[in-house]
Structure prediction request, 189 residues.
Amino acid sequence: MATRQEVLDWLAEIEAGLIHLDDDNKGLAAAAIELIDLGTEEGDLPPGYLTEHFTLAEMIYSDTAKALGVKNYPNSTETENLTRLCGVLEQIRTLCGDNPVTVSSGYRCPEVNAAVGGVSNSAHLYGLAADITIPEYGSPTQICDLVKPHLAELAIDQLIDESGGGARWVHVGLCAPPAEPRCECFKAG
Prediction:
């Protein structure tokens, strides 16, 4: 039987139009059905969810990757980092009145990071950063003002009120252990 991650990767490739269903994919299709039929135990997350409100699909989605035909898929370490990051995003969501968080950029493979002009050591490359907005709560500045007193408890390395191309967002970046978070909050762009 295929692993859950293999099935999720396969489904993401179908969604992205990178593969088509044919005889070669019947085994993974059967594995997907088996995972869905298993259901979830009380307290378990539905398949594809990293935390209660965040899916792997939304954390890896990239218009740039799609346009370039690039597979923007994290490895297992990067997926673990994304899960940790989503835990922090859940806490930010709670601080912001439990309003939905929109992720415009999460994990970026090196090719996608370069294509969007990301720095060579971007936390996005490791699944440790997300660019977010919370429209129902307020502006990126308001989000940063609310979260800033909680940087240490949330172990946030950088909280940045960013802008570019006419858009504004909040960059939430973590650091990889054993590094200690810098707890920086500033405006850029």
Remarks:
- Residues 91 and 185 are 17 Å apart (CA to CA).
- The chain has two domains: 1-48, 50-188.
- The beta strands are 102-105, 129-133, 158-164, 167-173, 184-188.
- Residues 50-188 form a domain with the Muramoyl-pentapeptide Carboxypeptidase; domain 2 fold (CATH 3.30.1380.10).
